[in-house]
Amino acid sequence: MVAATACAVAIPAHADGAADATLARQHWVLNCMGCHTATGGGIPGKVPPLANSLGYFTHLPAGREYVMRVPGASNSALSDQDLADVLNWVLTTMNRDALPRDFKPYTAAEVAAHRRPAFSDVATVRAGLVRALQARGIDGVSERY
Question: Could you give the domains of the chain?
Fold first, then answer.
């Protein structure tokens, strides 16, 4: 997420244009926005922010997997393709500056292979990833939300 401005990213991964981005946004509204809020800012002390935060996790292989395995994503009724599209939409619209320079959009195959099982202790996994990011000099994600 450090220098994503320089990368060209498809929105979503199989994008046929604005219609796919619109559908990904609609899936966001119906499946994510209720908890993470319209701006992706989360709810302090309860729900972590996604905007200007989630993209940093994609700097680490374990963080990339984390994004797919949080319970809200892992257990959602979205198809693997729809989840990949939502993740790519959130990352490229709300996290562009937080993405790694070599960011690769999520694919349905990647989501299918890694989304389950959902993490049972998300806070512990997240804290470990935040420490790993900080060890790499990436401090855009706070330990607490």
Answer: 4-135 (1.10.760.10)
> How many residues does this entry show for the chain?
145
Residue 2: the pLDDT is 35
Rounded-to-integer distance, Cα 54 and Cα 138, Å: 12
DSSP label of 119: P
**Alpha-carbon torsion, ordered 10, 75, 66, 79, to 10 deg:** -20
Token pair 């349905």 is at which residue? Answer: 108
Give the per-residue pLDDT at 3. 36
What DSSP assignment string belongs to 59-96? Answer: TSHHHHHHHHHSHHHHTSSS-HHHHHHHHHHHHHHH-T
Q: How far apart are the C-alpha atoms of 96 and 99, rounded to whole Å? A: 6
pLDDT digits (tens, 9 = 90+) for 3-62: 333 333 444 445 455 558 999 999 999 999 999 999 999 999 999 999 999 999 999 999
Residue 141's region, left for phi above 0, alpha for psi from -120 to 50, else beta, is: beta
